[in-house]
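Recall from the previous lesson that a structure prediction takes nothing but the amino acid sequence as input. Here we apply that procedure to Lipopolysaccharide biosynthesis protein from Halosegnis longus. The sequence below is the only information supplied.
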Amino acid sequence: MPDDDPDERLADALERVAHGAVVSIPSTLAQRLLALAFTAVLTNGFSAGGYGLFVLARRIQRFLRSLTRSFTTGLSRYVPNTDTDADRDIVATFALTLALAAATVFGVALYLAVPEIGRLTAKGAEFELYLRVFALGLPATVWLSVVGSLLQSLEEITPMNLTLRLGFPTLQLLAAGVGLWLDSLLAVAVGVLVAAALGGTAALAWLARERGLRPRYRGPTASSLRGRYLRYTAPLFASSIATTVQRLGFYPLIAVFLTSTAGAVFAVGELVGMLVRLPLFGINQLMPPVAATLYGGDHHEALAKLYHATSRLVLVGVTGLAVPVVVFRREVMGLFGPAFVEHAPLLPAFILAQWIACAAGSVGILLMMTDHQRAMFLVNTAITAGLVVVSIPLTRQYGLAGVVGVYLLMLSLNNVLEVVVLWWLEDLQPLTVAHLKPVAAAVPLAAVTLVGHRLVPGLGGAVGATVVGLAVYAGVLLWLGFAPAERRLVGALADRYRSVTPG
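The prediction returns the following tokens.
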């Protein structure tokens, strides 16, 4: 039935924000900071070209790993709805088998293709060695990914965060330290794969002990469960090709047409851009259950209020992070070593791409929660086809700047089209007049940081000017005011944090 009181419906839905969101938001921040530290250790400890070879090989492996993730998406759909532990074990075992089989096939294919890839890229024997190591280690990274999905499907959110967002990144950082001590990026590659295997094994052992999970292939319902699971995941595998090309297709493009240093710069620019995206990551931890509750109850007006409030809060956070990074782009790139500073003019394009991608809030999640996966697939396929056409000529003509331009174009088109589709299908759109408030508050933020940049150059000046600028930014936003739905959302999260904080 339609909303009688949208504010009351929204408040009720927010009261049900899961404990998982409270755990996931800080752990996601920690994960990103650990990834930043890992990258900074490697870029400062090794040459930009050497790190570029490492990251290109690893991203090619990640490209293949991403394709296998479609075989685990059904875990969240089927595991919570199984009637018995035996059925749960059958689904989990089948998903793990599918994913590992795909990883083995992809890994063998990549290993066999290394000589041809080496010929096409002309990156040398070191690059081919990294490719072989990551090809052999692909099942280990997929193992960790599948176990993480299984933890999530069983709503074991704290162990999932400890494994994926804290444990593995910490072990990865330790591997970087060992590799630096040994002066070997190969040791880092091996260490990262060992960390993935250990993390996945430890988490699976925990599930076996605490939840009684066991490998199970046979049972009265095994055949029908496997058939349903395969029918569910097979189309998702086809869909994942488009999204994987969008997210990771830049690295094979760089490997073929550009230098290894270009690969290193692109990876660092993308990493910094993803840090700017943190407010959206945080909101996305709570959006699925709240949006599903409101949509399932036909509370459309309350869902619209939620969308408006979350998209505005995301814009507040992303704008506050983006402006200082753009102003102090040379200092930010300097954190990764002198070789990256000369490419600082490209960083604003990465930041603008993420700002545009975040400006509409959780549009992709809302499309999924309103059962429009097919529309998302069509959007992604259309964008991917267009990018394939324009990416090679732009890369050949403009080099790394051309690749970054394609990256900006891809994220912009994806976000705009998803907003249009959601608006058309569900009459939900994110923008209100209140979205101008963070844009207006960004003007004094930019002024303070620019003046600080001129008066006190260097990293110390950048930190000081950023702190002062963000204080001014917050003050202007408070003066402009927040909507009741925004205050309610922040209050719901604050209440949850207080409930789990000692004292």
